[in-house]
Amino acid sequence: MPRPLHAVIHPQALQHNLSRLRLAAGDARVWAVVKANAYGHGLVRAYEALRAADGFALLDLSEAQILRDAGWRGPLLLLEGVFEQRDLEMCSRLDLWHVVHHEAQIDMLSRHKTQVPQRVFLKMNSGMNRLGFAPQAFKSAWTRLNALPQVDEISLMTHFANADGESGIAAQQRVFEQFSSDLPGERSLANSAALLRYPSAEAVLADWVRPGIALYGSSPDHGVNDAAHWGLQAAMSLRSRLIAVQSLAVGDSVGYGGAFVADHDMRVGIVSCGYADGYPRHAPTGTPVLVNGVRTRTLGRVSMDMLCVDLSVLPSVEIGDEVTLWGSASTGQVLCIDEVAAAAGTVGYELMCALAARVAVEVD
Ligand SMILES: *Cc1c(COP(=O)(O)O)cnc(C)c1O
Fold it and tell me: What's the structural domain count of the chain?
């Protein structure tokens, strides 16, 4: 028998989340962001559930090739654009749209030999200071692109640094509008957080929205609003089983470093799941976990292949009983990945993406 640890991907949750986001998006078209192997869910698996999207946004040519091979004929967008000259040949061959965020990418386009001009998304750095043309350089970049026979339609985009936080999007939105208002073309601004938090702002939804994390059922602003608040369902569950049960007397410790010491006689469950599976090693004692659908907590340090859980509230559980690390238990109770992430000092994004290759994946 293989290790009992497995991830379950829930296609109906992906479909539900997409409809939920489409509703919020109004008339805007929806890019399903499927970079990073669809945030750990599996690119083709996610694609099959998300075919109702208007397009797929990703990073790698190889991912684009996979979606074309899987039969997707609609728009595909390379979010970081091309990295070298010959990538443009693949863009022509696979009919990819790509982001242009840097002068060097315009140089490459100007040297590209093609009969069929390409659709590009010109990116403005409106304040995040990662990718994009400075606002003052935006129009000249547009003018240069527009003069190239290699370029077809030019769309305009930017990305928010604080859509999930208190400072919000207003300042960046203002900059984007100010320096793009006299340019034609479709616009794309909103990630999950902007889409969910500013759904009545037409200028934010614009022509295309770009949700990623919310598609997978994690809240983009957990801590303020949880996934249930946004009506999102977990698309990934990580489930395992108890492979041992220990009895601790007062003063006994469990795990490496003796980091947890029992202050009463208690039973402890050993779960087949550790940091080599993608469970966060920094999850401290007290991180929530479900055993047979009942909420309890982890104890002591997470080790490579195992972690320990408190069975004080579960007197009758035994070896083989189900443990849900995040997502839904097979009996339906839910432990949001964002809660586990918060306990470990990270975000749901990182946990999903870190799911290890050795973890078997099933589709619900
Ligand atoms: C990853 C990414 C998104 C999606 O962000 P979420 O926070 O996951 O919704 C949108 N736009 C760009 C440019 C991205 O890189």
Answer: 2
Which residue owns the Cα nearest ligand 1 atom 1?
212
Q: Does 257 lie in the same domain as 205? A: no
Q: Is 35 noted as a catalytic residue in this protein? A: yes
Instruction: Give the helix/strand (H/E) hosting 36.
Output: helix 35-39
Q: Any idea what the CATH number is for the domain that residue 87 is in?
A: 3.20.20.10
In tens, the pLDDT along 295-315 reads 999 999 999 999 999 999 999
210 and 268 fall within a common domain:
no
Q: Of the listed 35, 39, 47, 123, which one is catalytic? A: 35
69-76 CB contacts, 8 Å cutoff, 24+ apart: 70/44, 72/47, 75/31
Residue closest to 221 by CA, chosen among 343, 338, 130? 338
Domain with 178, as residue range(s), is: 11-216
Between CA 41 and CA 58 the distance in angstroms is 14
CA angle 130/135/140 to nearest 5° reads: 115
Tell me if the pTM is above 0.90. yes
